[in-house]
Amino acid sequence: MGPATETHQPRDLADVDVLDVLQALSDPVRLEMVRQLAAWPAQDGLQCGQMKLPVKKAAASHHLKVLWEAGLVSTEKQGVYKLITLRRDELDERFPGLLDSVLRAAG
Amino acid sequence: MGPATETHQPRDLADVDVLDVLQALSDPVRLEMVRQLAAWPAQDGLQCGQMKLPVKKAAASHHLKVLWEAGLVSTEKQGVYKLITLRRDELDERFPGLLDSVLRAAG
């Protein structure tokens, strides 16, 4: 039996450029995803379907992939669920103040 | 005789959304323009041609227009020159910490 928990190996933030992060954040749906993830208890993951978004599931999945590729989120598969977490502490270390200032501006 | 100094009315930052700023900054040429403007003495304007950029004049003009439309820069015509200034203080007030964190990350 394989493990019930499987983590999709996240991107090493040392290889992520600030342009990747800015491009990922510069879309209204993705910024809203990050805003909802930031408001969620950090220890719990959020499912994509739990977010309130103005787009259909396929579009949400695409946007989630962009966030993941830019190193903004990590995903963990738990059984049939995929839980998404904002990599807030790591991002704060790599790009001090960036996420906080964007989230503050996004309200 | 008209005035020798003519200011292109800059956009009111109250009407600028953080997404406009993120989109404007999420291009390597525009981020480099902002970086060079930030390194220039604030009281002096910089001419577009004085920036060291990896693109030709027409492309640089386009990128400058995007920055201007996002409220990031103001321009002032002095005789035959157009001097560009980063609206740093106003941006810091509108989006606290954002420009600083981006510039820090951009090195």
- Average pLDDT level of chain A: 90
Strand order of the largest sheet of chain A: 1-3-4-2
Helicity of chain A, as a percent range: 40-55%
Largest interface, C-beta within 8 A = A-B, 21 and 21 residues
Radius of gyration of chain A: 13 Å
Proportion of β residues of chain A? 15-25%
Can you write the helix and strand succession of chain A as a string? EHHEHEEHH
Note poorly predicted spans of chain A: none
* Oligomeric form: homodimer
Distance between the termini of chain A: 45 Å
Helix-and-strand structural type of chain A: alpha+beta
H/I helix tally of chain A: 5
What general form of chain A does the structure show?
A: globular
What's the β-strand tally of chain A? 4
Largest β-sheet summary of chain A: 4 strands, antiparallel
Describe this entry's structure for a reader.
Two copies of one chain form a homodimer. Chain A is an alpha+beta fold and 107 residues long. Chain A has five helices and four strands; from the N terminus they run βααβαββαα. In chain A, strands 1-3-4-2 form a four-stranded antiparallel β-sheet. In chain A, strand 3 (73-78) and strand 4 (81-86) form a beta hairpin. In chain A, helix 1 (18-25) runs antiparallel to helix 3 (57-69). The N and C termini of chain A lie far apart (45 Å). The mean pLDDT of chain A is 90. The A-B interface holds A 18-19, 21-23, 25-28, 31, 94-98, 100-102, 104-106 and B 18-19, 21-23, 25-28, 31, 94-98, 100-102, 104-106.
